[in-house]
Amino acid sequence: PPEQAARMKKLQEQEKRQKVEFRKRMEQEVSQFIQATGEPRRRFQPMNKIERSILHDVAEVAGLTSFSFGDDEDSRYVMVFKKEFAPSDEELEAYRRGEEWDPARAEERRRLRELAAQQEEAELERGPAPPGPPNDYKDKYRHLIGSEAAKAAARTMEANKAYGCVPVANKRDTRSIEEAMNEIRAKKRQRQAEDE
């Protein structure tokens, strides 16, 4: 029937208008957020899937990073981050668990992990020295590579943090292979004990 079609069309137009208005509102909020100097991240109110996708799009166009958090559809919300304050894996994990992010506590945990890693490294260094090649292979190519240039280049090379060489601090799983294996073995033993 034509009146039903007209009603549908009217509803679709209304929905389209609402989306356009919502997008405009989000664009205003996002541009306010970009101009707010002391605000590295902003948490938006919970919103439905379509609204979230519009907000993600607005954030992407504005050159920001955005993530959705929250378990059930009703409470899912978007957080927008300025690029220079893009969240670390730890920060994201905290939000996924529904916790507040505390950089000081995370820094303390990171320091303890680093300390443990340094101690482990020191222990490894005290171990037997691995047998090396009898001569330095670079001697063979000295006429091609020189002796100083490569060292200077190696010293000045800065790793791009977002690519390639990942510093230990950025790895999600900072356990050594031994620690990981011990954990797996302990879980196995626990399972066996439970099965018996």
From TrEMBL:
Gene3D superfamilies: R3H-like domain (3.30.1370.50). Residues 93-114 have a biased composition (Basic and acidic residues). InterPro entries: R3H_dom, R3H_dom_sf, R3H_sperm-antigen, SPAG7. It holds the Pfam family R3H. Coiled coil: none annotated. Residues 20-83 form the R3H domain. Residues 92-140 are annotated as: Disordered. CDD domains: R3H_sperm-antigen. PANTHER family: SPERM ASSOCIATED ANTIGEN 7, SPERM-ASSOCIATED ANTIGEN 7. This is SPAG7 protein.
